[in-house]
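Known limitations

Files may contain more than one protein. Parsers should not assume a single record per file. Below, a two-record file is shown to illustrate correct handling: read the sequence, read the token line, then continue until end of file.
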Amino acid sequence: MYTNQINTRILYPSFEYFEPKTPEETAALLAKYKDAAILAGGTDLFIKMKQGLIEPKVIIRVKQPSFIEERPDGFHIGAATKLRTIEKSEAVIAKFQALFEAIRVIGSVQIRHMATLGGNICNASPAADTAPPLLVMGAEVKILGANGTRTVALKDFFLGPGKTVLSKSEILTEVHIPTPRPHTGTSFIRLSRASMDIAKISIAVMLQLDTNKRISDARIALGSVAPTPIMANKSADLLKGNRLTRETLNQASQSVAGEIRPITDIRGTAEYRKEVSHVIARDAIELANRRAEGS
């Protein structure tokens, strides 16, 4: 395993390969081969195989629609849609700025041309960049399995590092984001060691203002600070019903540090993440508020 981690050659074990034509065929194969690995963009799968972290006996190439569609109930994005496609979408840039800001800092342009939205979500990394903005925007995911389809709120999707509510015979097919209401602003901020490294800590904020510029709804989500991406609900509640004053901003941003459960790893210490959490929370809240006001 150590050899695979340091050399630059691709040394994969043998495996069976399937390329079904429809999501339904994919679900049937997953039901048959319980330990199969899903191949979408491959940006995470191939690295894990090369490092010897996983050795799947069966790989199933997902053939799913790639699309971004605005419908009466909001925006629908196919799970196989490339991150670069979403990044370049004018609709996403205009209405979901936090998602755009998160995607544009993922890896390199080459990686974003391969990686998919569904893959970033299903990898279930606590540092997944798309998770915080999708959480604050109230996203839900459509899941297909051998027994049919079901819809799950994204806040209920993650169970732990690398773990989701997906069964062995299920795949994620679509992400639904409700259309933002008027006077809504979102923001995303990430701190990392280098531009293409994963996050030390990330945060997304959504604020909705009423006609008096009071915060009628607020959501805050963070990554890399717990076993899963999390919502800071208590901190968000401190903002609701208030104008964004220095006092309310201080209260909410300071509260964030009490809601996270960071660990110390190679990218940073738990203490560092606690210390900077209220700083980036302050910046993200202020930015979302300015956008909600139309500044």
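...continuing to the second record:
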Amino acid sequence: MVLMSMSPIEIEHLYKRYDARDIVTDLSLQIPRGSCYGLLGPNGAGKTTTLRMLLGISNPDSGSIFLCGEPIPKRARRARAQVGVVPQFDNLDPDFTVRENLLVFGSYFDIPARIVAQRIPVLLEFVHLEHKAHAKVGELSGGMRRRLSLARALINDPDVLVMDEPTTGLDPQARHLIWERLRSLTSDGKTILITTHFMEEAERLCDRLCIIEKGVKIIEGSPRNLIDREIGYDVVEIYGNDLVSLRQELEPFAKRIDLSGETLFCYVESPDKIEEQLRGRHDIRYLRRPANLEDVFLRLTGREMTD
């Protein structure tokens, strides 16, 4: 029996190792119903492994998972009947039309064909693909295929939607359309778990998020709370040459300065003081802006690429 009082996703003290390497270490998450939750981290941080364990595709070494009130992996199949999944890479059937992809996928959930047929026009309108119902998947643009993947994930009217990098490779218009649709789904009470590399996406969509690195949770909270707690200042980005000496000049006017490549990141209470020091210099460019989630992410995980 499903306990409706439970959070749709509950993970406690999850561990997973591959080849004597810790992939996920003591990860605990509780995601409230009707919210959008983001799982963020660099490549190799353990995000996809966590999703695979959540869906019962991979077994944890220890810890507990409840998805839609069902223990995972013991009752993963029953839980997945209440879940929609948008994978990182589209796996639509290229031999079928848009409508046929939805019709066939609906049959996997033992939904009567007449019910699926009733849902298809509504879903196609929801993702702005009603005019492509009879087009083959190969005729669709990348953005259209991504929207079709979202429609397909909703064919069983799921309580939970799991999305791995939902807008990778999309142009700004398609990305904003999917963001709008995801916000409407949470307004309707659906719970969404996403992984993403787009910090703007996480900041716009997520009520709460968790940043993990090397399989370890390093911080959790709302985007605004994390920005205020970890940064708390405006940012002046400076581009140019000889930034090492410029950094020394500006340090008295900043709370913190990070140097990455050819960019100085100055975290300041008053951007005006930094701008005064830069006025009249033609060998640099600069941008002043509020702190954002990317600043938090890079501060916690590092600005340099790691393998």
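Parsers that stop after the first record will miss the second one. For reference, the second record is described as follows. Residues 55 and 186 are 20 Å apart (CA to CA).
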